[in-house]
Amino acid sequence: MNSRQRRGVILLLLSVLCAVGAFAGVLSVIDDVESKVGPETTAYKLTSDVEPYRTLEAGDFREVSMPKRYVPSTAVTDLASLRGKIAVTTLRKGSLLQEDMIVERPALKAGQQEIAIMIDASTGVAGKITPGAKVNIYATFEGKAQGDEPVSKLIVAGAEVLDLGRITALKPDQDDSQRIDKAVPITFALDTRNAQRVAYAESFASHVRLALVGPGGDGSIAPGDRTYTLDGDK
C-alpha cells in the first residue's frame, strides 16, 4: 500500500469516526429533549368562544397532545367530566380548558320544578345574575279600575336561578311605549306555589324584575314590604 492509499484509508476512517460522533451527538440531544419534555398527555382546547353560564358540549373543544409536564394539574383531560357543567365566565377560542373554568349546573331539589320566563335583558339581569344565585322576583300590575294606582308586588323571595339562556331580540310592539327589545330566558327552581306565582306574573304583570339577593341573605321579607304603591310613600 503506497502513501496515497494510506492517506485515503486514514481520511476514510476519520470520516467514519466523525459521522459516528455526529450521530451520537444527535442521539444525545434527542435523549436530552425527551428527558426534559417527558411523556405526553391529552388535553382540550376551545374551538370557539363560549358564553358564560352555557352548558358545555363536546363540539366546543378539540383534542390536543401536550407534554405532561407542561399541562396544568387543573387541565381537563377527560371530556366525560364536562357532563352537566357550565362555563363560569367567557371562554376564549384556543384556551386550554381547565377545571376552574367550569362548575356544576345547579340541580333541582326534592319538591322543586323548573320554570323559565323571559326577563328584560337590560333592567332584569344586567349581567350580574348567574346560575346558583338567589333573587327576589318583583312584578308590577296596572290598576284594576280606572284611577287605581299601579301596584308592585314581591312575587317570590329567594328564588334560585338554575340557568340563563342567550339574549334574544324580541319583535317590537309599536303600540307599547315601554316595550322590551331584548330579553333573557331565565330558569328558576321553585316549588309548585311559587311556580304558579311566577307564571301568573309573566302572563298578567306589565313588568317583571329581578333583584339579586346578597350572599348570606335569607330572603325573609316583612309582610308589609311585599306590596308597594306610590300612595304608601305619601
SSE order and pairing:
Blueprint: H1 3-37, E1 40-46, E2 61-67, E3 85-87, E4 102-104, E5 113-120, H2 121-125, E6 134-141, E7 151-164, E8 168-169, E9 182-190, H3 192-204, E10 207-212, E11 227-228
Antiparallel strand pairs: 1-2, 3-4, 5-9, 6-7, 6-10, 7-9, 7-11, 8-9
Q: What can you see in these coordinates?
A:
- Helix content is 23%, strand content 29%.
- It is built from 3 helices and 11 strands; from the N terminus they run H-E-E-E-E-E-H-E-E-E-E-H-E-E.
- The model has no long low-confidence stretch (mean pLDDT 78).
- Please, how many helices? 3
Question: What structural class do helix, strand and pairing data support?
Answer: alpha+beta
- Main sheet attributes: strand count, strand direction, barrel closure: 7 strands, antiparallel
Shape category: rod-shaped
> What's the count of strands?
11
The figure for the number of domains is 2
C-alpha Rg, in Å? 32 Å
Strand share of the residues? 25-35%
Average pLDDT: 78
Low-pLDDT ranges = none
Instruction: Give the CA-CA distance, first to last residue.
Output: 125 Å
The assembly state of the depicted protein chains is: single chain
What is the share of helical residues?
10-25%
What's the SSE pattern?
Answer: HEEEEEHEEEEHEE
